[in-house]
């Protein structure tokens, strides 16, 4: 959470500084006539640090800030030295403005290259290194982080466009080219702040629920397979016997809490073909395999919704820890089976009791 907050802070400071400089709030207030701290230089390093810590890869990852922070300080000192030297020169104000904007443009291009490189590497970790963080994937599908990377790509496009216009206009009268970028990044930090707080809360709640129920779901539960393929007998009695074993196996091993558990997975566990399993469940339970699992998930969700220990937990956390793969699926299936949304069910049941 620390690095996510620092990422939001870096973008916020950069936007505030741009607005303050445009309004001439800083110029001529100190010993220096100009100063633009390159906060944008820190944004992607903080994103990288947040990502590797969130994915539990910090111990295996490069300590990037050990390089970035000293480099950031060097850039700030270099800019202060540049401004101090030229402020005492005989240049006219227009010449000073031109020199300063040209200097900060080269600084900004360097920042863009470094920032974009870190962004691409972070993107590579997220998309190509999934095998390194299976544990976090059992709690969070990371869609919100994937979405942030897509949105940030748009931000980079606006930044590059603004820089091109700045250079093309010879470092004068270019401020308008940065307006879309400022507006976009302002909206982006609000979205990131909301999603970050929400997702981290859900993550903590899911971990607590799973620990409380003594459930470890990392996709590799160690449960002995059961052998139901004793004969090719397809009689009703044989199907009932096989179904009872299947039902007992799924409930005891809590396979219904695995969002991606399919007939193919059950086939591997029982050594029966998928079509045979589908036939058995349809004939005996009178429903599809998906509906059969969803009924168990609904009962699990009801139990959690009415448990006072989880009264302040989000509906999303409860739905996901009950075996559903998304909030929308949970709401849809819950209403289909109970006639109420999870919130309505909780409120009505609590009111009655």
UniProtKB/TrEMBL annotation:
<keyword id="KW-1133">Transmembrane helix</keyword>
<dbReference type="GO" id="GO:0003700">
    <property type="term" value="F:DNA-binding transcription factor activity"/>
</dbReference>
<feature type="transmembrane region" description="Helical">
    <location>
        <begin position="67"/>
        <end position="89"/>
    </location>
</feature>
<dbReference type="GO" id="GO:0043565">
    <property type="term" value="F:sequence-specific DNA binding"/>
</dbReference>
<keyword id="KW-0472">Membrane</keyword>
<feature type="transmembrane region" description="Helical">
    <location>
        <begin position="148"/>
        <end position="167"/>
    </location>
</feature>
<protein>
    <submittedName>
        <fullName>AraC family transcriptional regulator</fullName>
    </submittedName>
</protein>
<feature type="transmembrane region" description="Helical">
    <location>
        <begin position="109"/>
        <end position="127"/>
    </location>
</feature>
<feature type="transmembrane region" description="Helical">
    <location>
        <begin position="36"/>
        <end position="55"/>
    </location>
</feature>
<feature type="domain" description="HTH araC/xylS-type">
    <location>
        <begin position="244"/>
        <end position="348"/>
    </location>
</feature>
<feature type="transmembrane region" description="Helical">
    <location>
        <begin position="179"/>
        <end position="197"/>
    </location>
</feature>
<keyword id="KW-0812">Transmembrane</keyword>
<dbReference type="InterPro" id="IPR018060">
    <property type="entry name" value="HTH_AraC"/>
</dbReference>
<keyword id="KW-0805">Transcription regulation</keyword>
<keyword id="KW-0238">DNA-binding</keyword>
<keyword id="KW-0804">Transcription</keyword>
<dbReference type="InterPro" id="IPR009057">
    <property type="entry name" value="Homeodomain-like_sf"/>
</dbReference>
<dbReference type="Pfam" id="PF12833">
    <property type="entry name" value="HTH_18"/>
</dbReference>
<dbReference type="InterPro" id="IPR018062">
    <property type="entry name" value="HTH_AraC-typ_CS"/>
</dbReference>
């Amino acid at each position: 959470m620390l690095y996510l907050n620092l990422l939001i802070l870096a973008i916020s400071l950069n936007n505030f500084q741009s607005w303050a400089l445009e309004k001439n709030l800083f110029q001529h207030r100190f010993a220096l006539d100009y100063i633009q701290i390159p906060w944008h230089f820190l944004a992607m390093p903080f994103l990288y640090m947040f990502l590797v810590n969130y994915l539990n890869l910090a111990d295996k990852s490069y300590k990037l800030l050990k390089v970035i922070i000293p480099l950031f300080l060097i850039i700030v000192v270099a800019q202060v030295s540049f401004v101090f030297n030229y402020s005492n020169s005989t240049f006219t104000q227009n010449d000073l403005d031109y020199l300063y904007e040209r200097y900060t443009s080269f600084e900004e291009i360097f920042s863009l290259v470094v920032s974009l490189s870190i962004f691409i590497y972070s993107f590579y970790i997220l998309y190509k290194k999934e095998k390194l963080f299976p544990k976090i994937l059992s709690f969070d599908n990371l869609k919100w982080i994937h979405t942030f990377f897509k949105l940030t790509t748009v931000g980079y496009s606006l930044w590059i466009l603004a820089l091109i216009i700045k250079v093309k206009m010879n470092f004068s009268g270019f401020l308008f080219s940065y307006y879309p970028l400022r507006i976009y990044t302002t909206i982006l930090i609000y979205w990131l702040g909301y999603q970050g707080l929400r997702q981290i809360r859900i993550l903590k709640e899911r971990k607590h629920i799973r620990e409380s129920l003594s459930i470890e779901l990392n996709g590799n539960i160690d449960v002995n397979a059961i052998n139901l393929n004793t004969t090719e007998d397809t009689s009703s009695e044989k199907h009932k016997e096989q179904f009872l074993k299947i039902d007992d196996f799924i409930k005891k091993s809590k396979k219904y809490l695995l969002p991606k558990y399919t007939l193919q997975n059950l086939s591997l566990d029982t050594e029966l073909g998928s079509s045979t399993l589908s036939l058995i469940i349809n004939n005996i339970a009178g429903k599809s395999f998906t509906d059969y699992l969803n009924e168990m998930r609904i009962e699990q969700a009801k139990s959690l919704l009415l448990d006072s220990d989880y009264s302040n937990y989000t509906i999303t956390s409860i739905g996901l820890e009950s075996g559903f793969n998304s909030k929308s699926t949970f709401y849809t299936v819950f209403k289909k089976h109970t006639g109420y949304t999870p919130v309505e069910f909780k409120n009505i049941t609590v009111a009655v009791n």
